[in-house]
Amino acid sequence: MQVRLKKYLTIRRSTLLCLTAALCLTVTACRQGNGSGSGVRVELQGKAQGTYYTIIYYDSAGRDLQPSIDSLLHAFDLTASLWESQSLIRRVNDNNDSVVNELFAQLLRYSTEMNHYTDGCFDCTVGKLVNAWGFGFSKREEVNDRMIDSLLAFTGKQPTLVTKSDGSLVIRKPHPETAIDFNAIAQGYATDMVSRYLEQQGITNFLVDIGGEVYARGCKPDSSSWSVGIERPSETKYSEREVATGIALRDAAIVTSGSYRKYYEENGARYSHTIDPQTGRPVRHTLLSVTVVDSSAWRADALATAFMVMGLERSLEFIKKHPEDSGVQQVCFIYNEASENKMYMTEAFKKYLDF
User: What's the order of all strands across the beta sheet hosting 160-163?
Assistant: First the structure.
């Protein structure tokens, strides 16, 4: 597919680099008049959840909202980040705490909802498996069939929430060894959270990108949509980035999940960071990346992960079974066939193409 290369925001998963027209190496808030009367352009760059964020918005007052946004994201990390040693999720996983806040509870509700909806392909209880395969915060272990079978005993059955008489929420894990991992939904949820905050401040034209999970609201000063690029899957994680295609986005979220950047190789085999909750092993199929457009970033995040677990054929079957679901219908797959990378887009996705 031939594409016209523009100054796209290139999306991808967690620790990878964001390519924008004016990428700053430090945390800055850049302001410039746009001459359109729609407000002052503000661009924020920073770090959260072990990755970067980029936020662009147009504000009539030219406000610097970075301190408030950083505070929101820090509070989020203290609840849901596995990379924070004292976070609530770490305490829950270590059985040092069972009382959770509303943010944690909502992440669990959404995760459980998507677990049921995707027939277990999305599962937040894979924490032990993710760590064992070396994609978590702990050192990779020597994985064998016996270990996988033992860890699968702690995976699959979803934790539940109980409301106590004093109104507090208590989590009940199916097994003390069950480890929760919100990584496949957390950045999407944080993107939605920051987007809601901007709307509460009266800002209606913005783009929020946290680790590749993007939400675009409104439009640019010239009334055009926000331009977002989908990365072409690379041969190795060190390869130079290229844009496979671009889309025009407004009032929607877009998330890409892929297997071509986050992996490790051992004894000639490549192990993807996407773990199949049903086998306990990294996925092994021809699907390289999945891009989902939905009304919320958390849901696009979860669906993209579930499709990566399913693989192309099962994903297409799932799409056929859910014609009423706009997020399920707006998907772009890039896969390998006969040593050649190919792209398949649903009809609903094609309306976003930006050529």
Answer: 99-100, 169-172, 160-163
